[in-house]
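As promised in the previous annual report, we have extended the structural survey to additional targets. Below is the entry for 3-hydroxy-3-methylglutaryl coenzyme A reductase.
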Amino acid sequence: MVTEESSVVASAAKTAKFWLSRGGFKATVFGTEKRGQVHLKFDGTTKEINDFFEKVKPQLIDTTKDITAKMKARGGGLLGVELVDKTTYLENYYQLDCRFETFDAMGANFINSCLEQLAKTIQILANGYRPFVDSKRCMDIVMSILSNYTPDCIVRVQVCCPISELKENEAMSSKQLAQRFFDAVQIANISKERAVTHNKGIMNGIDAVVIATANDSRAIEANAHAYACKYGSYKSLSDVSLENGTFRFWMEIPLALGTVGGVTKLHPLSKLSMELLGNPTAKTLMKIIASVGLAQNFAAVRSLITTGIQKGHMKMHLNNILCQLGATELEQKEIIDYFKSHTISFRAVETQLRLIREVRESD
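The corresponding structure token record, generated without further manual editing, is:
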């Protein structure tokens, strides 16, 4: 997590410790299916292209057998191909919607190779299809590409404990803390202004591990934010319930990850990260990364509804400022003590350090 600010790493670690004694994080993978599409235009009727597709579908699937043989032997590969009518949204526009299982590989190259082969084959078959030739119908392949939106590649992670165990200090009762936490998540469900920042906090944890394991952080980000809109408006990726005296906090998120292929096992830092994680399968890595995301979200929301986000952040940031200013160990101790009761800013720290040095020089 070295790509993150110190406060992010500290809060994730603190949250992990908090939940370790309360049952830990429970994660379940509901699916690992990925998708890709061949995007095409056809100037005939929907019935004409449907009839053609049903006739050539077996040939389409068969034409990918050399590409999918190895993956199919493991129980995966190309799972299905369907023609989707999109003409309501764009004139003459259709998709070949394809489902894939790639197991521990992220599978981008595999999926794109299959899609390009399907596109090539359907174009050849359409050009030689007698009803199209006779009626002068035209099919044009626009593009073939995997989709980074994977709503069928889902992991759920949750934590729960008695509401009475949420309290860590005397400033607020456990019941009040739980209610504020509930309200904060509901606000993220009705306010996109809050939801974006709320979900960004989740990604603070997720992106760090994704990058460390040489997975595609841009794809994961785009996927997560698209999934947050699945009900028609942008909402919180996490949710909370307070029932029967129990606090339950959970999240469902799509994570298309790989633990083999690409540079995952080739880049020395990625290889080290995988070893630190126990060389997980793709499913286990989904659980780990989702848990880090939920931990970060719990820490951020808890800070917001108690001390405020700046107290912990600036406390960690103070150490960074002191290192930047070259403060000695003794100077650091004095300044840390001073700012326990004063507002932290770079200028304030710089001024206080100068005063300490001036006093020492005068002595």
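Strands lie at 26-29, 33-42, 77-85, 93-101, 139-147, 154-162, 238-243, 246-254. The longest strand covers residues 33-42. These points will be discussed at the next consortium meeting with the crystallography subgroup.
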